[in-house]
Structures are given as structure tokens and as C-alpha cells.
């Protein structure tokens, strides 16, 4: 596999070079965190697709196809549906807010007290999302290079942290575009047809696969419903996704570009399931289903092509890892650390330095956690359970229900988040019940407490309405954070 290793090495070096080039464009806080809010349709679509389809979608999607057949597309399909819903119903309004984090949105809607708790929940989610991608590329290295897990984690993690810290969102955007192209060619154009042909075509696969592998519901109706709750709704409120929405140069770009990216996700979902099914047909007795992707790549592809497809897999993993890492750093630095220090907003160049430091520290933390956890689906489920259970109701409630207020939002975060954590401990990390009861507890708390307490002040609601509509705030009432965010 010498040629394949050279192809992968060339790709990784190229990614570092692109990241270094992006460093020159990160001249302000806006450039570093949201690429100056000036991405056009092509770059926005590519980078959005790249960030949502990461290691869990690639390795995990093939794993689910290997284990359950065509219904294994449900998880990635739920991600695609969530991105479509976000783009059609919410992204235009989100882009007009011109903030940097979800917690800032909650602060505008409910008041500053809402941003601290939401910032902590969002920080845990984004950090765990970075961990899932780290676990994913480590699983590929395990099969291909026979190296210890920690070596794979350190090598891949150092590259991701390096180019992310160099130029922030500009470096990540440029590398994501490269990764989107490589991933599309490697997975959709090369691996999918080659794997199916190696397995003898769909007819031969159907003869050899276990009963139920061609059923769209063999994974279980309850599991599909849970995927929708966790991943579809998770797409609506995740900091890593919103931060990409903030990069669009207009609300029209955010809406249409995200729609195209969502359709791409649905195609990618089916591709992963079919690749997993082909692997099951050829290698039915793998020691672990997580090895399905690396196994089919290693044994079914010719030299050179194998290296490109492996580079494509790394593309998927690194895209999500870098997007989650900058999202985690943004939340930690702007929503948590700054408020704990009770400092006023610093100048842009100071902000760049502090965000770079946050990326480095949290990148190291994600590598350590990845060495401890071993299941990519388990880690991703923990991340989305916390996100959706704790924040879905107050975020969407704030966007669609005028009567929702600060006490209701805080009660929902506490009730939903606590319920999810307790049930994950008692029922298991992969149980369906935590998200069911967490959402129910959050919704009941939000509606009940909001109705029993005073409504949000009219001045705050009017300022929120103007911001959501993209109207400039009156000079006499604009606040410093609003002016800096705009």
C-alpha cells in the first residue's frame, strides 16, 4: 500500500497548506469565527455538506448498513432532513441575527441569564461532536496501519487542531471545500459502485444478505423515530451548524445553499447503507461492525484508488472535527469564559488570539476523551441527547412563540437536560427513553413556567423582532454587543 500511503500523505500535506493560506484572510474576529459573513452559494453549500457529514456519518453510516441493511440510512437521512428543515424554515432568520453563537441568540431573545446555561450545554455538545470524528479516523488507522489508538488520535488530531487554529473559519472553509470534493469523488463516484460490483451487484447481494436487509424499517420504527428526534432536531439548533449559517453572505444563500446540501446528505445516506450491505455480503463475520468501512476499502479497491478513498474518509472526519472544534472554542471563549471573567468585549485581534488558544486547548481535550471512548455512535448519541434535550425547546420556542420568557427557558434547559442525563445513566447511553422524556420535561416546563410568570418586556421583544427581521436598531437603543455583532 505504499502508493496509497503516498496519496494520503500528499492529501494531508495539501490540507495543511490550504489551512496556512487561509490564515492570511483571518484579519478580524468576524473573519476568524464566521469567514467574514461573505460565503457565496457554491462555497456555502460545500462547506455545509462537509461539516454535517463527518466521521459518524461515514464510518457510522456504513456500520449501520452492514448491521441492518438499507434501513441503516436512517441516521444520516435524519441529518439530511434536519438540514432541509433548517434551510427552508429558519436559516434566513438566523442569518439576519448576525450573532456568533446560539447563546447570543438566546441572550437577545430572553436576556443574558439564558446564555450561561445554554453555553455550557452547547459547549459539551460541540466538544463531544469533535470527539466522535476523532474516534472515527482512529478506527480507520486501527485497521490500515495497525498502530495503537492513541497514535492515530494524536496524528490526526494535531493536523485538525493545526489548520483550525491557523485561520479559523477561513482555513476551515477552504479545507472543507477541498474535503467536500474529495469526499464526493471518493465515496460516491468510486467506492459505492466498486463495492457493489465486487459484491456481484444488487441481485447477488440480495441473495446473500440476511432476511430484512432490503426493508426500509428493519432497524426498527422506534429507532428511526429516535434518530429523527435526535439528529433532525439537532440540526436545527447545533452551534456547529448555526456557525456555518452565519458565514452566508445573504439569507437567500443560507436558504438555498443549505437546501442543496440537505439533498446531498440524503444521497450520501443511501450510499453509506449500500456500501455497508456490500461489505456484509463479502465479509459477513467481521469482529466489529465499525471495521466495515476500512475493510471494504482495504480489500476491494485497487492501489491508488484505495488511497484516494481513504483520503475521502479522512476528509469527512476532519470536516466535522474542525467545524465542531471551532464551534466549541467559540462557545467556550465568548459565552462562558468571557462571562466568568466579567470582561468587556476585546478588540478583534485580541479575540483571535484567545480563540486560537481555546481551539488548541479543546483540541487536546477532545484527543484525550477519544482515547477513552471507543464507540462513535455512542459518543454522537450522548452529544445530541444533551443538545436536543436541553436546548431544542427554548431555542425553537423563542423563534416561534412570543409568550415564551426567561424563566420558562431556564426551567426548560434544567428540566430537559437533567432528565436526559439521569436516564442515560439509568437506562444506558443508547436507550431511546432519555430523549423522549427529556423533550417532554423541557416542553412542559417551558410552557408552564412561561404562562405562570411575567411576559418578556415589550422593549426586549421589539428589539428581538427588529433583529430577526434584519432591521437596524435605533441608534439610541442599540447595545454594544448588538453593534459589535452587526
UniProtKB/TrEMBL annotation:
Coiled-coil regions, chain positions: none
Subcellular location: Membrane
Assigned keywords, A-Z: Membrane, Transmembrane, Transmembrane helix, Transport
Keyword Transcription regulation: no
Transcription listed as a keyword: no
Pfam families the UniProt entry points to: SSF
InterPro entries per UniProt: Na/Glc_symporter_sf (IPR038377), Na/solute_symporter (IPR001734), Sodium:Solute_Symporter (IPR050277)
Superkingdom in the source lineage: Bacteria
Bilayer topology: Multi-pass membrane protein
Transmembrane segments: 6-22, 42-62, 68-92, 113-138, 150-173, 185-204, 224-242, 254-275, 308-336, 357-377, 383-401, 408-429, 435-453
Family, as annotated: Belongs to the sodium:solute symporter (SSF) (TC 2.A.21) family.
Protein name per UniProt: Sodium:solute symporter
Species: Streptomyces coacervatus
